[in-house]
């Protein structure tokens, strides 16, 4: 914090603050002072990491585990003067590193563009003149002028306030704007949210105006402190080297663990997503296997190691390394990133895409993510027991969309609270009933919303007060280059909601003031008394009118009567209880409730604010806000997005639990959670301990020890009044349960949890701090975009499994071929390799790569969101992948080995020539023809396996289960055109490689063939038959199947709220369970349920 403050500025008078900062409150800083301060303090910017430097990205790609293995093979090749092979390996390394570098660097550039979308400015007072400057140029001591809609540039001590409120939700999580004051405060223990004479950087002015002096900029602001805590590295447990605290052995233990962390991070074995760690382990395991194979090669040759033996050892090492894996993986992720960008998802870290496929829990903020982030009046209660309800409102800013109906209050309560069934009583012996679903027991009647609302004197009085006691504006404007007019709003969301409701009846503030109403006084909202009042003179009235709105409990104590005209009644204790009951009814539906009141002033209002101080003003306010008449209650809520509930249902089907972590009141959070399907409407259908654990206040959750949290039957699905520490503690609790979680958020207060979560997902409209802490940014802020990202992550994960199987199967086949080939000895006594090193590189880099790219572009399977998240401990290497790799690799290796034996021994009497590993000679013709045959066969087997691996279980000749065609093979394989042409062109490329003179003998060490093509075709048929038989065995005997989604006591997002799974079995429920398997499977069923929910 700037200046020499003995105490925090909120405790000091404005004069003391200005004195400490050396500024003039009337003229601001001088030009000379600004120049000095800009040299003393860094720019007013948050150090939130920004873009990753290009050299960091380059080094990260260069020291990838697979690249290090290729480096070793390249060095060995150059060491024995095999320049061709070493040069090819160098080209492979350059290609892999280049692809990864440019793709990740491009992604970072796109994120820079997203961060640069907004560049706010500040209105400052310098040298007695107002100037508009960039926020980064603001310095401590600057006097800032604020007005409605401004983004506050830095932390400020306010000294002039006029109805000023600021939205501090992004900082504190509090959804209600904070009313600001200018006087100093006395309590030294006040938290950030209660220091109401301080305006915080990055928050937004919702209404009013004011002036303040800057006390902190950049990383010294409260937002900057949160950003610093987000980026601060926390040392792992056990890494301390303090022997005084932990004993004499601790320096050695701590140093060893730090060394393990360093080398583990460098080698990619301890940090990264599950896939990154698995692939790093795979690379080093393959490296170990390559060394083992080299030892085997040397041992067979009795450790007599001339150049020929070294070349053979390098060949076996190259054969086991999938050289194109890094490039294929990176390009697949980049393609997925492009798809995601079109779906309003910006991926900052390519590895986050793979991590999405393993997400088991989503911790989501409520406001703006599950909900629209805009308030709307949903219900209004008017004395006389009438309730007005807004239906079908799709745009909170548009009063022309939707309709308003009215009903008797008792009828409305009956409609919103249906009779509850006592299942225990129904199962008793005296009243034996089965668990008949409600829709069967009581068929749905056609829903009647009630008659359209008409204007009444009571409603008109309510609207008059709601519109005039209001600082928001609602107007219709024509945008540039657009023909239609759109509704625009300014002000605080609660007041906007009331103003829009008044506009539905053509009673907006501007319309009423156009009829002659004129404001003469205002008593702004005071958080201590939770109300505001205005006084207006009417056009034809002899008396001024007082209009008041505020918290129900505060307003009704000031009222002496309820209603107007014939509906007027005296305010009694019993009537107050009735009003509070009505308020609770609205609150239970997720609504924030305000009371609207008014009274006539005796004559024209001519009172003036007192110069004697606050006491006189308070006395005047008490006179004004007394003897009021209650005109009604307004139920205001932040409507959930229409797509939220279907998205949550899809998460449930996919085995993902959704948690709501919000700063809202528990009743509001609970009601919204029920509405979107996070928790069931009727918690009584669940076991008592489970129902109690589903909803927690943050204060109660924070008081629990880790052991108590771990003992809960279910972690809370709703956490209300959340602080940043509560969110991070929730994430740690999930991690202790082996969950892999995604955290969504948009505010500064979400940044710590975004950085600590396995996958942090920030909103595009959120703060820069949140975006930089996250791995993924949603540009449209919608929860269903998260589900789309998870679906894409799963699709990519499945495709990664397919192309890893494709690449490693060929490696297994090549290794089997080469190891068995050690038995083929030429006239010099050296082993003759059945396939040359450059043939292996050609197959691994070119033949395998493009079909692998094609497999990476496969569409999502129909069941991608109907299976559980993948096991993060196993990653892509499931039992099915490992077994398939061995089965198909063995089949490939045996067929190619038998081909070499047939050509050399069957047709040429076993003539292996001399020095056929080095160069062409006529004595090597049988070996060279055999190599050409093996090369062509292995190439075609690898290519056809790509079509087989489009589905790991279904036959290649019937990939689509919904197809009615008699032979859909060609249609199915042509569906992925990139893969189709990769296989076709790859198959045709064999011919020039085999037949081009000199290239074939000098480089690939093979020669043209003729009758051997029959062997190639026969082996291809046998390979396809073997793969199809293995797939059929897996389907028939249900071998290596995926796990089923584990169903809990209820299904999130389900209209039926889990009764199908929660209730006791009976004959009728058995029948419904039988039909469940037929009716409720498949995408169509899921979509139909989603559509039915959206219509209701």
UniProtKB/TrEMBL annotation:
KW Protein biosynthesis (keyword) present: no
Has UniProt tagged this entry with the keyword ATP-binding? yes
Please list the residue ranges annotated as the Cation-transporting P-type ATPase N-terminal domain.
8-82
Identify the cofactor(s): Mg(2+)
UniProt protein name: P-type Na(+) transporter
Q: Which GO terms describe its molecular function?
A: ATP binding; ATP hydrolysis activity; metal ion binding; P-type sodium transporter activity
Q: Quote the cellular component terms of the Gene Ontology held in the record.
A: plasma membrane
Q: Which PROSITE patterns match?
A: ATPASE_E1_E2 (PS00154)
Q: Membrane topology type, per the record?
A: Multi-pass membrane protein
Record's SUPFAM superfamilies?
Calcium ATPase, transduction domain A (SSF81653), Calcium ATPase, transmembrane domain M (SSF81665), HAD-like (SSF56784), Metal cation-transporting ATPase, ATP-binding domain N (SSF81660)
